[in-house]
Amino acid sequence: MKQHVSQSLFILLIALLCLLPGYLFSRLYVTDGFLYQIIAYVQLSSPHDHLEIFTRGNYSFGFVEFLPGYPMTLSLYARMTGMAAPQVHFVPIAAVFLPLSYFVLARGLFQSTVIAGLFALYGVFDIGQASHYNMFAYTWSNLLYIGFLVFLLRAARYRQGADILMLFLLFAGSLFMHYAATMWMVVGTFSLNLLLLFGSGRLQRWIGQGLSRRGSLAMPGAFLIAFLTFNQLFYRVWLPSAAQLAAKGSTPFELFTAKLGTYLGFSAEAPEPFLYLNPWSEDLGLVRVLEYLIILLPVGVLLAHIALNYLRGRSLAVTDSNVKIMLLVAIPTGLAHWFIYGTHSGFNLRYVTLIFPFLMLMALRELKTPRWLQHAALGALTALAIVSFALALQYYQRLPPTSYGELKPSAGWFFRHRLSPEVLSDLDTAGVYLVNGSLITGDYPQFIPYDSDLYGSLINQPQSADDIPCYDYVVIDAGMLEKPLHGRSNRIYEPLSLHLTDLLENRHLTRIYDDGYAWLVVNRCEDR
Length: 528
Known about the structure:
This protein is mainly α. 62% of the residues lie in helices and 6% in strands. Strands 4-3-5-9-8 form a five-stranded mixed beta sheet, covered by helices on one side. The protein has a two-stranded antiparallel ribbon with strand order 1-2. Strand 1 and strand 2 form a beta hairpin. Helix 15 packs across helix 17.
């Protein structure tokens, strides 16, 4: 009885702590810049009884077809609560569901409430997940994928019809919610089944021990066909982006290594002009590197151990079927995620911090390390996640939050005067204007995101003036001059405060509106 009460109190304490990151980020209005356009779309659609792809002025909401379930979910939640879309997306819903999903997966893998509780804390405090505490698409894709892993582990061992059905339902949900989770499910099921079918005889026997079947391409084949049929992002965004990789100003690998250097405290030169390599701080960058080392080092040692045993003809050591499934699913999926994002916008390690902590503890157990070392590694990882959140919280507290109310007067003036169809701005400011526009007129210009040439033209230092598009206006959030600017393809550019003199002395620019919160600037591009 006493043990049951202690366990219940522990779970209650963990649950209360897990609510803290979402609550604090919600109070600070932390959000992802990509979310604003979805909010504007939902707000514009609110008077209607259905959602459709449409254009307002010169701005198209065609991106909705890439993830139609996400605005539908946001719209339904707004209708059920009676809240407007600009308020709904600050609801910290992931602060409830994400740690719960981590707890369920960890409890099933390790049969320990304490370990499951630590995983829940790690998942909700790690800054890679904590910043998506709200109604962002990553919230839903992460939940769908973790649920998919839970049922994949069951289906691979027991092959029950209900588990197979749940896998198909979760995959169908990912098709409508976010393409990353869909890709993870396709790659993971293919890698597992291909090795079961076509691996060497010895490898097949080792993998197949403890599993219910030898493998089949029916499920991964169906997943792939559905992905290629319904996911237009693959054809319209990723393939063109990958084909133009060599023509980009810098390769994702150059950008990744430059960022890594700054995280480790070294002086690194940006591969493109005006890129901001570390928008957080050196302290947070170092914490993130330590997290990756703790996560990846045990997994790397286990893989090396398995490979050496295989080459020497020895037993492959790993006997737990859950460990084998997770290795065969997560490692190819992580590599695919790294490659696909790398060929589009820059290397992204979100999958590593989402799933590989489970592999870390599994690897330490399979390597027969002392139990105290296993617990110390998980405790250190959780502590680093809390530290990363505290450092990020300081970063957000130093910046005055961009609010709809502060920019509403300038947005109202902007939309009433129906300024030019092409406006240069950063992703966040343009997004806030989109949302304000949805509350005012719903008639938008075409917002152009920053790249190195456009940033250079703003501060009168263009790299190749002949290729700069002739935008007519610039919108600058004056209250956020100290903040790095989110530009094209997930690139982050230096704060304008570093080049404020050059900006103010640019003879091509004329400020026509300044209320202390926003600057509206005319660009006389015909003079260039």
